[in-house]
Amino acid sequence: MSEKKWPTWLFSYNFEGKQWSMEVVARDHDEAKRRLDAAAAWGKLDGELIASVPLSRGGFLVPLVVWVRNLIRQARSAPNKGGK
């Protein structure tokens, strides 16, 4: 069974006097705009992209490893609530 690849849409914006762009993967132009609107309204910064590993058949190992790594980083950066 082959998986249909969705097109990548480009958005551009000005920031601090320079032109920037970003990619959004979506089924069509309208969905790309809705995804951008949702990101602007509800999105959050998850962290820096360190690596990208393509998975042709899906999988859970890489997302699990990234999730655990982010959890550890978040715990390390949280302020100490023990009073010290």
Topology:
Elements: E1 8-15, E2 18-25, H1 29-42, H2 61-77
Antiparallel strand pairs: 1-2
Query: Roughly what fraction of the amino acids lie in strands?
Result: 15-25%
Number of helices: 2
On the 0-100 scale, what is the average pLDDT?
Answer: 84
Shape: extended
Radius of gyration equals 18 Å
Largest sheet: 2 strands, antiparallel
Overall helicity: 25-40%
Structural class determined from secondary elements: alpha+beta
Strands, count: 2
H-E string: EEHH
Straight-line distance between termini = 57 Å
Total domain modules: 1
Low-confidence stretches: none
Task: Provide key terms for this protein.
single chain; 84 residues; alpha+beta; two-stranded antiparallel sheet; 2 strands; extended
Report on the structure:
By secondary structure, the protein is α+β, with helices and mostly antiparallel strands. It has one domain (8-77). 37% of the residues lie in helices and 19% in strands. The chain is built from two helices and two strands; from the N terminus they run ββαα. It has a two-stranded antiparallel ribbon with strand order 1-2. A hairpin with a 2-residue loop joins strand 1 (8-15) and strand 2 (18-25). It is extended. The N and C termini lie far apart (57 Å). The model has no long low-confidence stretch (mean pLDDT 84).
